[in-house]
Amino acid sequence: MKRLLSGLLSGLCATAPMTLVMVIVHRLLPGDEQYPLPPYEIAREMSEGAGAEQHADDEQEHVQLALISHFAFGAGAGGVYGLLGKAIPLSGAPGGIVYGLVVWGANYLGLLPATGLYHSPVREPLGRHAMMIAAHVVWGAVLGLLFQELVQDPKQPAAAGKQRPTMPATGERYSF
Fold this sequence. Notes:
Elements: H1 2-28, H2 38-49, H3 59-84, H4 92-115, H5 126-151
Helix pairs in contact: 1-3, 1-5, 2-3, 4-5
């Protein structure tokens, strides 16, 4: 249960820097590639498919729906990472990055086009692919690091070469 909850929380938190990377890189893309970000387009498809488009005519409501669904998916994917954590041979940032790239590939190259929630990747310019891959690398790295910190037993020694910082005794100072 701890691994699942740690994964959910790590995935949720990792979605914030991921989203920031997407927004920043999106603004740097050429003008013809600055159409709505994938989470927005996916949320619009989902709401139209559910017949909810009459209830979300407002652009701001679609943006909110996209953010909520994006963070919820990030949390859910993090939960899966938590459950698979011991099966992934790498830990920390490297394991998270590999997982983040698997999540990107499985969804953007397979599941989303197959379900009609997002268009085929052959229709995406290279810059948009790079944006989404970079965002998933950031998400995975943060996920892996947060998850590792949350599940590590504080009574166990840190991995070789990694010392966990400790609070100094009263009167001692940190030196940098």
